[in-house]
Design a protein that fits this description.
2 domains, Rossmann fold, 24% strand, Dihydrodipicolinate Reductase, domain 2, seven-stranded parallel sheet, 347 residues
């Protein structure tokens, strides 16, 4: 079955394409810009396909012979919907590597459409949200009456890619989010902060609007969910004053200046950084009686893990291992998909 990787020349797309080449997995490499595709990939040895997401008919014509789309071109708030619409029309399975809550929530509403088309919609096939979603699902089975879920991760010696920074710039000035009594509630980013012991290291963390605020509820039905990431205590204090500069951060001129700098200076972690970096992930659930369960993982560097999980899920989908409708990584695949990856350790 044919797998099309859209956004192939972006940092994460290139990581996925390189891994596929090493594994002998043939991909159709696609993106908006034909010259960028040819700059990064040999047209003689790869199937290259350039098309934009502006015209539905154009997208559909490029998906007619495609069985699975692996979408890696963000910001997904702008790019996911046109690709998903085309996938529904062409009955093409859709996976992406988004971490944006709004995208997860929008695609949930298309569950019945996907079932009627007999395809799977699986956003979040990368670092956000595979390890945290898998942990959440496993914990919910260990403590079926859990009422609260806390997830946390701490990147160690890592760096951020161009695409991730671009998404962050688009979201500047926006609020954070957690889930209370089953509902997503807007709140300041970094509303809560605390030290978390990841066993290997202890890190200060704060709450962020990570994708699991949406997906973990679908995977577990736990009504109260918070996600924490490691930051310095001084950065946490700075975030407490964010409301003072939010009007400035929301301005297009501010975002354009920051984007221009990112475009000129940021690609993603180099090979040395990738070798030295790793990520710690922790999940804890508890119930009304005070019973708790905890799982901790040590994972490879986040972009390395994204390439692994996204490619594996795309391969399995192409091999007809899928569930129709809207899925999260943990509702579609077993915990072993994650733990079978080299460098993933339960600690």
């Amino acid at each position: 079955m044919n797998i099309l990787l859209y956004g192939a020349y972006g940092y994460t797309g290139r990581r996925i394409a390189d891994l596929a080449k090493k594994r002998g997995v043939e991909l159709i490499l696609a993106g908006r810009n034909d010259s960028k595709l040819r700059d990064h990939f040999d047209a003689d040895n790869n199937q290259l396909r350039a098309f934009s997401l502006d015209e539905s008919e154009d997208i559909c014509s490029n998906l007619q012979d495609v069985d699975v789309v692996l979408h890696a071109a963000g910001p997904f708030e702008q790019t996911a919907q046109p690709m998903v619409d085309a996938c529904l029309k062409t009955k093409t399975h859709y996976l992406d590597i988004t971490g944006e809550i709004t995208v997860f929530e929008e695609l949930k509403l298309m569950d019945n459409e996907a079932k009627n088309a007999e395809i799977m919609l699986l956003p979040g096939a990368g670092f956000d949200v595979v390890p945290t979603d898998m942990i959440a699902r496993k914990l919910s089975k260990m403590l079926p009456d859990a009422t609260h879920l806390e997830l946390a991760f701490a990147p160690i010696n890592s760096q951020i890619s161009h695409g991730t920074l671009t998404t962050m710039i688009k979201q500047l000035g926006e609020s954070g989010a957690s889930r209370y009594d089953g509902e997503i509630v807007q709140e300041p980013i970094g509303k809560s902060g605390k030290w978390i012991d990841f066993k290997i290291k202890k890190r200060f963390t704060m709450t962020i609007p990570w994708g699991d605020v949406s997906t973990a509820h679908w995977s577990t039905k736990i009504p109260n969910i918070k996600v924490f990431t490691s930051v310095s205590p001084s950065f946490f204090k700075l975030m407490k004053a964010q409301f003072l500069v939010n009007p400035l951060l929301k301005m297009d001129v501010t975002k354009n200046l920051l984007q221009k700098w990112v475009d000129s200076n940021v690609d993603g972690p180099d090979d040395k950084t990738i070798e030295e970096a790793y990520t710690l992930v922790k999940g804890t659930v508890w119930n009304s009686s005070g019973d708790t369960q905890t799982i901790m993982l040590r994972c490879p560097e986040s972009y390395t893990l994204t390439a692994e999980t996204a490619l594996r899920m795309a391969e399995r989908t192409a091999n007809e291992e899928f569930k129709t409708g809207y899925q999260t990584p943990a509702t579609a695949y077993d915990f072993s998909l994650l733990t079978d990856i080299d460098g993933v350790e339960i600690i």
